[in-house]
């Protein structure tokens, strides 16, 4: 999918996705969500990409969902389309085989923070502010915030942040474990690429398997069985028994398994 609102570029083994709707503080609309999903599909199939960077242009990383996109939707349509689409798309980034680094260049609110939470790591510029303002509008975080945030900062901090809707400064977010590093704004892009290159220099299969194993350890992942099944199935397919089984099937004979 081609759109100017979300851009995907490649530099060696590092892919960079840029939210490019600066005049609206990168508020997410349907076109941007569709682009994010399309790029997730592309990245999932691209075995040359080892790390994904996700950032924004202008003064914001992303201030959440564009209120004009969802405010007039009836409840059933809101649940069936808008909320479900966001859940599905953000989950695609959480489950990408490659590590995803959210590079928070500015305001990170609501659905924008939920997108950042779907990443594996978060780097933030010093002046970044983060918040879940939904309750101030009489709604709730709808794209995974109530599930992913407690895993990083604990239930008490998550409740404080969501109940109050108050903004958290980058330094405090780092202390809480919400972001991994706080970097001067003029060094953010350089630091993000440095970290991405450091990860990309490691064995890509080992990195991706480690990501799956760590994610499977999270009670909120819900994917433990899928992850274990994927890893076990991949390994089992390379055993001598697997080769014997396939050979026996093709030769129409009974397999002679050796337990290797």
Give me the CATH fold name of the largest domain: 2-enoyl-CoA Hydratase, Chain A, domain 1
* Tally of discrete structural domains: 2
CATH architecture of the largest domain: Alpha-Beta Complex
End-to-end gap: 45 Å
Total strands: 10
Q: Given the structure, what is the number of helices? A: 11
Residue share in β-strands: 15-25%
Average per-residue pLDDT, rounded, comes to: 88
Protein name: Enoyl-CoA hydratase/isomerase family protein
Keywords: Isomerase, Lyase
Pfam family, one: ECH_1
Family: Belongs to the enoyl-CoA hydratase/isomerase family.
How would you describe this structure to a colleague?
InterPro entries: ClpP/crotonase-like_dom_sf (IPR029045), Enoyl-CoA_hyd/isom_CS (IPR018376), Enoyl-CoA_hydra/iso (IPR001753), Enoyl-CoA_hydra_C (IPR014748). Keywords: Isomerase, Lyase. There is one protein chain. By secondary structure, the protein is of the alpha/beta class. Helix 9 (204-216) runs antiparallel to helix 10 (224-236). Helices cover 48% and strands 16% of the residues. It has two domains: 6-200, 2-enoyl-CoA Hydratase, Chain A, domain 1 (Alpha-Beta Complex), CATH 3.90.226; 204-251, no CATH class.
Strand and helix layout:
Blueprint (H helix, E strand, L loop, with lengths): L5 E6 L2 E6 L10 H16 L5 E6 L3 E3 L4 H4 L4 H20 L5 E5 L2 E3 L1 H7 L3 E5 L3 E3 L13 H9 L1 H10 L3 E2 H7 L4 E3 L4 H13 L3 H13 L7 H13 L3 H12 L9
Parallel strand pairs: 2-3, 3-5, 4-6, 5-7, 6-8, 7-10
Antiparallel strand pairs: 1-2, 8-9
Helix pairs in contact: 1-3, 5-6, 9-10
